[in-house]
Specification:
Blueprint lengths: L14 E7 L7 H14 L4 E4 L2 H10 L6 H12 L13 H18 L6 E2 L18 E2 L1 H10 L2 H6 L3 E8 L5 E5 L7 H7 L9 E3 L2 E5 L8 H6 L5 E8 L11 H14 L2 H24 L8 H7 L7 E7 L16 H20 L1 H4 L8 E5 L8 E4 L3
Parallel strand pairs: 1-2, 1-9, 2-5, 9-10, 10-11
Antiparallel strand pairs: 3-4, 5-6, 5-8, 7-8, 11-12
Helix pairs in contact: 1-3, 1-12, 2-3
């Protein structure tokens, strides 16, 4: 791992660095860029949690030694973006670039993505009724081969870096997390987290079938915040869809905006709720400390005493901001040019955040939850904190 750059905070010895990765298909290259800056400027994560493409990136990080992680991410993203050459027309303006993106997305729909998925042949309507082939348009066998080649699952299961990925049980609709601290992880768990219907078939694990976790929640942030822990946590939440946006002016913009809202998973609401919960937990603790001994065993007091109170949590939001030429196809537009732009944006946003004075100078030992959004589109970025 590279040494932290000057004027950037270093991680404390008793601190967990957690990377939380939202789903978003082709936009996931942004997360790879975020990780590149994080590992160079700050530190390597001790825990990575992801949904869908975030689960794939998480596996590539947790399933490789520190010195190989960026290289493995680069290998994956260059593989999946290798099918469409970038023509010279991109220099001709926004409309030409939008046309290139749409051509790339159309190619993906027709021919699939190298190392990721391919169209079923014969197509689903001609497959045996009741088979997995009959309920999905694409075959993800290439992804299984790619994961098994690029990810060391023995390393993941050794516990050196915790990995958590979310999926939905098709039969009962329940959300479930596969966690390397609780079970043995293999390629099926990663594929299940990204099995978005009707494009991809559900993945069978121990007799149950699972679809993409984004059907219920596209971010694992709440799962991470709900897990008990005694060490201070710094959580880097990397979102690929923006909850906030302008009123659409065309039907095409309506489709894009609907997708942004559906998959943003109200990440900011999760952190707001966590702030409120921490305020209540800290208040309950202070109140219990003021009670006379004869009231300490009251059932209500004991119940309040069990409300979880963190030693301290920093939640740092990073959110991909769509380019004006990107449309509703942005999450399945895998051109090499777009991939590199997404990667570069993530790298720049993470570096900017870690060099922001509000991040560098904040009180690291304080209790409660501290929320940072330093790459916001707003003219004034925000930083919120729960009172002690």
């Amino acid at each position: 791992m590279s040494r932290p750059l000057p004027n950037t905070p270093t991680a404390a010895a008793n601190e967990d660095c957690i990377l939380v990765l939202q789903g978003g298909g082709a936009l996931g290259a942004y997360q790879a860029g975020v990780f590149e800056s994080l590992s160079k400027v700050y530190r390597e994560p001790t825990w990575v949690a992801g949904i869908s493409i975030g689960a794939i990136n998480a596996a590539l990080i947790a399933g490789n030694p520190a010195h190989s992680r960026v290289g493995r991410l680069r290998e994956f993203w260059e593989l999946v973006s290798s099918s469409l050459a970038t023509p010279s027309l991109v220099a001709q303006g926004v409309s030409a670039r939008e046309g290139l993106n749409e051509a790339s997305a159309s190619q993906v729909m027709l021919f699939g993505v190298p190392g990721f998925f391919k169209p079923r042949f014969p197509p689903a309507p001609f497959q045996p009724r009741g088979s997995l082939e009959a309920i999905s348009f694409y075959d993800t066998t290439p992804l299984k081969s790619t994961l098994e080649r690029l990810v060391d699952f023995d390393r993941i299961n050794s516990g050196s870096v915790r990995l958590s990925v979310g999926a939905v049980n098709v039969r009962n609709g329940n959300f479930e997390y596969f966690d390397s601290t609780k079970q043995t992880i293999d390629a099926r768990h990663i594929m299940a987290s990204g099995a978005l219907p009707p494009g991809f078939a559900p993945v069978e694990i121990d007799g149950e079938h699972y679809w993409d976790g984004g059907l219920v929640s596209n971010t694992p942030l709440q799962y991470v915040l709900d897990q008990p822990g005694k060490r201070r946590r710094v959580v880097f939440q990397v979102d690929l869809f923006a909850a906030q946006g302008a009123l659409p002016t065309t039907l095409a913009e309506v489709t894009e905006r609907e997708k942004d809202i559906r998959f943003s998973s109200r990440t900011r609401l999760n952190t707001t709720n966590e702030l409120d919960r921490q305020v209540i937990a800290q208040a309950a603790k202070r109140l219990i400390d003021k009670l006379p001994p004869e009231l300490r065993n009251d059932p209500d007091v004991r119940a309040l005493a069990h409300v979880r109170s963190e030693t301290g949590v920093d939640v740092v939001h990073l959110n991909y901001r769509s380019k004006h030429y990107e449309t509703q196809s942005k999450d399945y537009e895998f051109s090499r040019l777009s991939m590199q732009e997404h990667w570069d944006a993530g790298r720049a946003d993470m570096a900017h955040t870690l060099h922001d004075p509000r991040w560098i100078n904040h009180e690291r030992a304080a209790l409660g939850v501290h929320v940072f959004d330093l790459t916001s589109d707003h003219s004034t970025a925000t930083a919120a904190r729960a009172p002690k």
